[in-house]
Each structure stands twice: as structure tokens, then as C-alpha cells.
């Protein structure tokens, strides 16, 4: 499904978060360059293991580098994997466009590609994620996780999901259509939000609006949860509604 290179190793884990928490222990603590703003848990994990964390421009010669590809919450796609002794590419949101995956670079020593079942498949509760890459690092992660890291039901469901390319293709098409629909609602139909598209992926959308906290509160009153950010008073991230959620979203935006 992911076109894993023959020379790369693969490890199933109880969620990508379990891997993120353990990866910093694979090398002696030093500098970790993490391009942001991005998913907070990478920086938190490195900091908890004694690493000095900062943006790439402030961390020349960093021993570790992390990119989220595409990035959460901006949706930015990176041109290449970072080049450092420990190089992490988090592709949790990449399955919407596998042609842009950096999986081909998984054979480089020191590199790990992370995959998640909580995003494209919407199975966060399954607790299933994967690390793909340097066999030496994969072996050390496997030792840390122990002999039975993933449940039998999770492995069975994951196998079925990865063996169904037709479902994946249909889902990619639906997500593209739903993302475009959400953009129209926020930026054209309900212009009172003052929103414009600022980024995102087919799994979530990022909007710039005059007052993100006010829009979040308005939607929350209709039981629609969104995400805003302490580093920006104007950006708000929305996930795509399920089939039964569109009417409620339109009511919230109209109110």
C-alpha cells in the first residue's frame, strides 16, 4: 500500500504517538530541528528526553530533524526529507495523496517515516501506527515496545484496510469533494465569518478569520469542536464533517 522500499524495515506500534514518544531515545540528546508551527508532540517528546529543540534556522548542524508531511495545521508539503543523523518524517496525513510521500527516502541510515491509522482511516481508537526506515533504528524501537505491542484485532483491521485500494481511492475522491464544500461554506456561502482559506489538507482545513476564538465559540455552541492556536488569534482549523454533520454546521454558521 505504501510502496515500502525493500531495504527498509517496518514496525507496527500501538499508535504513532507511541513511536513519537520513544524516538528521541534513539540518539544521545543534542539539538533537534523541528519546522513549525506543527504538531506539538514531536517537540514535547524531544524536550522530555533532554534535547534542545528549535526551528531549523536556529539549529544548524542539529543531530535530529523532524518534519510533518504534509504539515499539521498548515498543510505544507516538504520538498525533501531532512538530512540529519536522526531524520523523522511524520506522514500521518499523507495518505490523501500517496504520490507525494517521501517513502522512497526511507532507506537512508538514521531515517524513519511514520504512518498513522487515526487520520485517513479515522481509526484513532484502534491504536495502530507504523515506523518505516533504517533497520537498525527499527530494531531498537521494536525492543522498546516489547513482544506484543499491537492487539490482534488492530492487526486484523489494519491488514484489511491496507488490502482495500478501491476504498482508499473512493475515500480520497470524497475527501477532496468535502474539503471543497467546506471551503465554499466558510468563504462564500456564509461570508459573515470573514474567513479565507489559509491552508490545510483534504482531512482538515485551516482558515484565517478576524477573530478565531469568537468563531470557535460560535461553533462550539452547536457541538462542533474546532482548534485555535496560541500563536495566532486569527487561524482556526476545522475537520471535515461526517455525512450527518453538514446540516448542523450550516445552522451554526447561519446563526
Automatic annotation (TrEMBL):
Q: Which InterPro entries match?
A: Aminotransferase_I/II_large (IPR004839), NHTrfase_class1_PyrdxlP-BS (IPR004838), PyrdxlP-dep_Trfase (IPR015424), PyrdxlP-dep_Trfase_major (IPR015421), PyrdxlP-dep_Trfase_small (IPR015422)
Extract the SUPFAM superfamilies matched here.
Answer: PLP-dependent transferases (SSF53383)
In what residue span(s) does the Aminotransferase class I/classII large domain sit?
9-200
Which of the seven top EC classes does this enzyme belong to? transferase
Coiled-coil stretches: none
Q: Which Gene3D superfamilies match?
A: Aspartate Aminotransferase, domain 1, Type I PLP-dependent aspartate aminotransferase-like (Major domain)
Q: What Gene Ontology molecular-function terms does this entry list?
A: pyridoxal phosphate binding; transaminase activity
Against PROSITE patterns, the record matches this protein to: AA_TRANSFER_CLASS_1 (PS00105)
> Per UniProt, which keywords does this protein have?
Aminotransferase, Pyridoxal phosphate, Transferase
The record, for PANTHER family, names: HISTIDINOL-PHOSPHATE AMINOTRANSFERASE-RELATED (PTHR42885), THREONINE-PHOSPHATE DECARBOXYLASE (PTHR42885:SF1)
Q: According to its UniProt record, which protein family does this protein belong to?
A: Belongs to the class-I pyridoxal-phosphate-dependent aminotransferase family.
The name this protein carries in UniProt is Aminotransferase
